[in-house]
From TrEMBL:
UniProt name for this protein: Uncharacterized protein
Annotated InterPro entries: Elsinochrome_Biosynth-Asso
Organism of origin: Hyphodiscus hymeniophilus
Keywords: Membrane, Transmembrane, Transmembrane helix
Compositionally skewed regions (Basic and acidic residues) per UniProt: 282-300
C-alpha cells in the first residue's frame, strides 16, 4: 500500500531524533574529529621517530570500524524511510555519510600497512567502502533532484520523482555544483583508497598521506559546520518542525556516545598488556597473504 502523498503540502514536519538527534550528530562529529587527529598523529610520529604507535593504531581502527558501520546503517535507514523523511533530515544523513567517508579514508592513509597484513581485512574494508559509496551516491542523487526541482521542504523526499519539475531557486546553481562536486569527490576518494591498498612501496607515500589528510580535514570541517548550522539540535533548521525532540536527550541519544568508550577500553587493555596487537607490515616486508609466506606457513 502506497501512503506517499505529494499533493498536500504540510505546514510543518515531524522531527526525527533517530537520525538528527543531538547524541547521534555528536557521535559522528566526535568520531570523525578524533580519527582525523589520530591519523595525523600516527603519520607524523612514525615518519619522524620510526616507531609504531600501537595504542593509537588500535584506537583509530576501532573508531573507523564503528564509523563506517554506523554510516552505512544510518544511510540505509534514510533510504528505507524516503517516503516519510523530508529533505532536511535526508541532507543531514548525507552530511553524516561524508564524515563517515572522511573517517575511514583517513584510517586507510594511516593504517594501510595494517590492512596489507591480512587480505581478508583488506577486502572486507574495500567491500564496506563500496557499500558506503553506493549508498552515498544514491542519497546524493535524491539531494540533487530536490535542489533541481525545488521540492517543498515539508514533503517526503521520495516526492522528487512524483512532482512536476519547475524552475529552481535563484541560488540553486551553487547547490547543484556543490552536490555534484561532493559526489565526484567521494568516487575519487574510493578509487584512490582502493589503489592505495594495492600500490607497492611508493616513494611519495608521505606526500599522499599528508595531502590526503588535508583534503579530508577540510571535508570533515565543511560537513560538521553544515550539520551544526542546519540541525535543530545545535542550529536553526531550514524547515518548520512540530516540536523540539531533536534537542532532547534520552538513552537513545546517549547510547552512540557511550559506544565511543569501547575503543578507549581496548586501548587501556593494550597498555596493560592484556591484549596483543600485531605490528603492521614493514615497507620492505611482504604481507601475510603473499605466495612465499603462505608456503612457509604450510611447511611449518
Amino acid at each position: 500500500m502506497n501512503l506517499l502523498n505529494c499533493t498536500t503540502v504540510p505546514t510543518e514536519a515531524n522531527t526525527d531524533a533517530g537520525v538528527a538527534g543531538a547524541g547521534v550528530l555528536l557521535s559522528f562529529i566526535i568520531t570523525a574529529g578524533l580519527s582525523l587527529l589520530i591519523s595525523c598523529t600516527i603519520i607524523l610520529t612514525e615518519s619522524k621517530r620510526n616507531t609504531e604507535a600501537i595504542v593509537l593504531r588500535k584506537l583509530l581502527l576501532s573508531f573507523s570500524d564503528q564509523q563506517i558501520i554506523t554510516g552505512i546503517g544510518i544511510q540505509c535507514v534514510a533510504l528505507a524511510k524516503m517516503e516519510s523523511m523530508i529533505p532536511y533530515h535526508f541532507f543531514i544523513v548525507w552530511m553524516l555519510s561524508l564524515l563517515s567517508t572522511a573517517t575511514h579514508i583517513s584510517s586507510i592513509l594511516a593504517l594501510v600497512n595494517d590492512f596489507k597484513r591480512d587480505w581478508v581485512l583488506r577486502w572486507l574494508r574495500q567491500f564496506f567502502m563500496f557499500v558506503n559509496l553506493i549508498l552515498s551516491m544514491a542519497s546524493g542523487i535524491f539531494i540533487l533532484e530536490t535542489v533541481m526541482k525545488d521540492l517543498q521542504p515539508t514533503l517526503p523526499i521520495a516526492c522528487v520523482w512524483e512532482v512536476e519539475p519547475h524552475s529552481a531557486a535563484s541560488n540553486a546553481g551553487v547547490s547543484i555544483a556543490g552536490t555534484i562536486a561532493v559526489m565526484a569527490g567521494q568516487a575519487i576518494f574510493f578509487a584512490l583508497g582502493v589503489w592505495y591498498f594495492h600500490v607497492q612501496n611508493p616513494q611519495w607515500l608521505r606526500i599522499v598521506q599528508i595531502s590526503g589528510l588535508v583534503v579530508l580535514i577540510a571535508l570533515g570541517l565543511g560537513a560538521t559546520i553544515r550539520v551544526i548550522l542546519l540541525s535543530q539540535a545545535f542550529g536553526s533548521p531550514s524547515v518548520k518542525l512540530k516540536d523540539t525532540a531533536e534537542k532532547d536527550w534520552s538513552f537513545g541519544q546517549l547510547l552512540p556516545l557511550l559506544l565511543l568508550l569501547l575503543p578507549v577500553v581496548s586501548a587501556v587493555e593494550i597498555m596493560r598488556g592484556e591484549m596483543q596487537v600485531p605490528s603492521p607490515v614493514k615497507v620492505e616486508e611482504k604481507p601475510l597473504d603473499s605466495d612465499s609466506d603462505e608456503k612457509d606457513l604450510l611447511e611449518a
